[in-house]
Amino acid sequence: MNPKFTSRQKSQAGKLLEDMIESLGPSKDDLQRVLTSKAFQPRLREVLVALMARYFLPLTDEEALAWLVEQAQKSGSDAKRLVDGCRKGALEQGLANSVPCHFAVEAGATLKQTIPTLGPCVEDFKHLQDWSFADVPTEHCLISGVPAALRETTSQNMATQLTTLGAVENRWGVPPGFFSKELLHTVYVAGVALTHFNLKKRDMFFGDLWVRTGTCDADGYRLELFWDQGRLSCDDWHWDEFGSSYLAVAALGVTKALGH
What we know:
Elements: H1 7-24, H2 28-35, H3 40-52, E1 56-59, H4 61-70, H5 76-92, E2 102-105, E3 141-149, H6 158-172, H7 186-200, E4 210-216, E5 222-228, E6 231-237, E7 247-248, E8 250-256
Parallel strand pairs: 4-7
Antiparallel strand pairs: 1-2, 2-3, 3-8, 4-5, 5-6
């Protein structure tokens, strides 16, 4: 983990905020109204959390549109179809417009080493260090979807869950196969889950669900994620052919940057 910020950095942050206020030149009454607003501190915190995010940067819908066009060279219509579809799905799941559906991912993050540095994980994932699985590092890409476990996919085996994701794609209007072709590697789902938790202080699995991911260990057991007393936990589930009332999947897909 990074060492605690220094007193000098604290002073620099205060000076930046002071200079910004001076440049805007608000009246005394306007500034007091902002400072006493219930929305001020939460909004400021969200901005700081987003800017300090490592490897997984939450984007607004507008920023995601620009990323898809510039980084992946998608057409404007294709990019809008994906962004609008994800927002439709988020609203269907009861998530506010302020909840991000897109996360710009840097290359090089791994489940064992990087994910425990991004947020609260059970035992800093020390129990995973001896597990035998391909800890594939992240690529430069955009993860898009709905940062919540889908309750409609519980009590289904994996094949049926993928079929359900296909129906979700059709219902939301996202490209066929974006969610249902394959589940994302655990590192991507974990990164989105922690980023969402850091930003909104709520877990994307509703406290009682586990989420299947696309990573399997050497014995063919699939890694699953869940929350345990405010910390992200990772375990395995032996049987893809069976479901459980607490085992779901998340509607998340990946768009790789051009050339990656």
